[in-house]
Amino acid sequence: MWKKDAPRHRWKRKAARWAAAAAVAIGAATAGWNGYWYIVGWKAANQEAVRLPALDSSPSSGAEAAHASRRPVEQAAAPLGAHLGELVIPKLGVAIPVYEGVREQELRRGAGHYPASAWPGGKGHVVLSGHRDTVFRRLGELGIGDALVIRAADTAVHYRIVRIRIVDDDDRTVLVNKARPTLTVTTCYPFRLIGRAPKRYIVTARPVQTVSLERVHNEW
Length: 220
Fold this sequence. Notes:
The chain is α+β, with helices and mostly antiparallel strands. It has four helices and eight strands, in the order ααββαββββββα.
């Protein structure tokens, strides 16, 4: 009886070792994959912001300046995943790439632009989203009055933060259209919570000026 069962026991031990080795390999591959995309997001969040034109607090003068202050950022029908521009946060010294869409493919690389929302420079509600543990992990350091800048092509739209709030994760009011031009930046909350976050951290900003980067670069 023992001799008949011995091969079966050996096979079970081998199968257990193979299963354990496979589990370790899968775990290592998953950790490596997630680690790679975490580093990609971390690098995106730590890009240094290049020099931007200073916000002009005085009234615009001249036809060129008046035109630049009113000119909207052009937004073509961008495909999902397309690079649209950058969200610059001067207080944090970072420039975060912005991609069309809020799928995991976009959010792993930077901030995502909700396709149904507006684009800076015109009328409507611009909505950007990003992960709390990569590109927006320092979003909580911002306060009322701090600046945000969306840079796309040869135009930079300057915003000032006017409101910060925390809502439930199923609160869809942050996505509704607005008659007044508005920028909303969203991420999960709490920032340091491990696991699924039950809240959303919402930063609302209003545009204060649109600047032609092409004109400014020509002046340097």
